[in-house]
Amino acid sequence: MADVDVAPTFGAELKDGFKPANTWVAHGISWLDEIQQFYRERSAIEKEYAAKLNALAKKYFEKKNKKSAPLSVGDTPAMTPGSLESASLTTWSTQLTTLESRADEHDRYGNNLLSQVAEPLKFLGTRFEELRKRHADYAGKLEHERDSQYADLRKTKAKYDAACQEVESKRKKSESSFDKAKAQSAYQQQILDMNNVKNTYLIAINVTNKQKERYYHDYVPEVMDSLQDLAEFRTMKLNGLWTVASQLEAAMLESSNGLMQKLATEISRNQPHLDSMMYIRHNLGAFHEPPDKVFEPSPVWHDDDLMIVDESAKIYLRNVLSKSKAHLGDLRREVDKKRREVEGIKRVKQRIREGTEKKDEVLVVTQIFALQEDLHAVDRRRVTAEVETSTITSAVGDVTLGAKNHNFKAQTFKIPTNCDLCGERIWGLSAKGFDCRDCGYTCHNKCEMKVPADCPGEQTKDERKKLKAERQEAANSLLKPTASSPTVATDSPTLTRSNTMNSLSSGYAHSARRSITGGPTSPIDEVPPEPSTPRPAAPASTVSSTTARKRVMAPPPAAYISELPGSAPNGSGSSDQQKGKMLYTFEASGDGEVSVVEGREVTMLEPDDGTGWVKVRAGYKEGIVPASYVDWAPPSPMVAQNTGASARPESTYSNSGSSIGTAGPKKKGPAVAPKRGAKKLKYVEALYEYTAQSDAEHSMTEGERFVLIKDDPGDGWAEVEKGGATKSVPASYVQAPLAAAAEDIVLRDISQVPQKHVTQQKGSETEREGYRGPPRAADPAAMFYAEHVTSVRLVKRNQSQRERRKSKLDDIAAWRRSRERSSIG
After folding, report:
1. 508 pLDDT more than 90
2. Strand partners, 435
3. pLDDT of 565
């Protein structure tokens, strides 16, 4: 065998082939057990002289031949070795050949074999196996970290998709919202949040790619080099024990001295790296590094892979950059320190192998491995901080220069306090937040990264109060619904989106207009009237020539949606809504409730239906409160609507936490009636027939109804319940009843129709829907809308269902016409 000047390493040559290399090393370590068994058996057989020795040699020749390939090149070599054997196997063959020529052995030699060869082999085999398992566990940890990084990226991608979906939802809500300014403000705020999530997603992509690169080029090669070193260390120790065994035989059997010298020569030629070289040459294969992760746009929000660099995004990026830069220096110093520790212990190991230092090398290798694990953990954090810093600075530069960061301290606010950024309360479930030690700025945990770096420094108590008032006023101004024009704010990003309204939503606009004008009852025959004034152009549809990005967004809802009957021009709702004032303070304790302080003005949205609760609007919040807690003012007379901006001054309120200390004792309100009814279920109906492909799916027939448990998260499947079993169905095969709201009004109005006008049917829709409570007043617009939407929806149902619904609608229409004629007469 020729000497090799520079021995190749597993990490440089085999890249990510840890599992087969680990198996190969395991074979070598388990082979030590066979060798020690050999010496133990030989010690017992030595007393049986030549016959037994010849049988033993033959037996282990056969064992060697069976394991020649796995021990030489592993279980799955890229190239078969043929008749070639590794250097260790060749040396082992020489030992067996020497054994066949020796027939005279002594009992003392057998005892020496037990004490000086077999027991050390057992001890070394156990310790080597422990080291090998630590290598395997560490490699598994690295793989788990890589997969966790991928999983975190997928979660970030899911959050980005959810944010995009929320933007789309806000956009759709703004189309039908009466409060245009508030809806548009919520829509713009959601876009800003989506941009922040997108930036986080892009940062996560870069971090994942960098960690992936380190995994395949640094982490795994280092583990494989260490595994190779363990295998070579095992070979070196094995050579030493073989030498001891041969020396015992040479000293005891002078007649066999020549054979033993030859065996010792063969052992000395078995250099530790020769087995590794043979394994490398027979296991070389093509290595394909996985491609880098790239930005994947949301299926509902078509976007590019560029960082968002508007002012709101810069605030978020500046805060992320500040945190990353603050930790980067410490991480680099810690990495250098731990790397020096690893290099120092490696030099100790080298001195042990050279014989200049007497220490337990296995213990030293264990220490090296522990230090390398610590170094890896710190280095991963350093890489993450460096990638975050470089990603942000390459997009917007070093935005931390000149920034006056707040000296935040984590707080749990036991006294209700308002967030200086969003104006919301920091209390209850969201009591955790931050407080600036210098200027007193308070914010939620979720708002920390959105706070501008404009700390004025240490302030006196009076200055803090003044700043608090100014910040609260600025935060409250963002929450007030403003009577603004339908145009989009000029500082918002320029976005465009094609009209995605379908024919059904257009049908709603027809039916709503028909209910007011008394026009034709068929939305197909009706021609929409031309608006008396030209519609304002949507500025969001114009793309600036200075930007290189194009994004898609719907124009402002006020630009193309006509106002519904009774809505004010500024989107504030009907002018005849009843006003009231809270007699007592009410704290929300359940879903759908809203907290309102004593003396606050509220607007009735839905009257008390007999449950003791009424739905109100307080500022920009909506929810239910006890009816006994509100003092309602008499309704004001109807006045002509002003087509311009509302002349009524906007009602303002203060939610500053500074008033808490001066407020008097709260008046305790009367007992609250319990809310009636359970959680309302959402139903879907099957559009087509479907046969389940597995036990996890439901079979469906056309028109079959299910309870919707979980909507389509993006994979094309929805979870529904039928017969107490929750399973999946194709999301495109089901659809929520479009006329659910209208059907509810229709079925409730049936109770008011004289029985002579109603066709009695067994198992009516009213019974199946579980109707409870007094009937509501019929709404003509909703009545005609129900007629149109129901007629469209029933096309996909069977003929009997269409006839039954048509009969109900005709009976109600006839009853209403007769009631109108009687009232006119």
Report:
1. no
2. 409, 442
3. 37
Residue 632 pLDDT greater than 70, yes or no:
yes
Structural contact between residues 249 and 43, judged by C-beta atoms closer than 8 angstroms:
no
Q: What is the enclosing helix (H) or strand (E) of 375? A: helix 361-396
Statement: residue 543 has pLDDT above 80: no
Q: What's 308's DSSP letter?
A: P
* pLDDT tens figures, 169-195: 888 888 887 888 888 888 888 899 999
CB count in 10 Å sphere of residue 494: 18
State which H helix or E strand residue 723 sits in.
Answer: none
Strand order in the sheet with 734-735: 725-730, 717-722, 705-710, 683-686, 734-735
Q: For 655-740, list the strands marked E by DSSP.
A: 683-686, 705-710, 717-722, 725-730, 734-735
* Chain center to CA of 627: 42
Per-residue pLDDT band for 113 (boundaries 50, 70, 90) equals confident
Round to whole Å and give the CA distance between 620 and 593.
Answer: 14
Residue located via tokens 């803090």: 464
Determine whether 770 is exposed, middle or buried from the number of CB atoms within 10 Å of its CB (0-12, 13-18, 19+).
Answer: exposed
- Residue 218's pLDDT band, with cuts at 50, 70 and 90, is confident
Task: Give the containing element (helix H, strand E) for 426.
Answer: strand 425-426
Instruction: Find all residues with CB under 8 Å of 819, minimum gap 6, and list them.
Output: none
In 359-384, which positions are buried (b, 16+ CB within 10 angstroms) versus exposed (e)? eeebebbeebbebbeebbebbbebbb
Q: Say what the pTM is.
A: 0.40
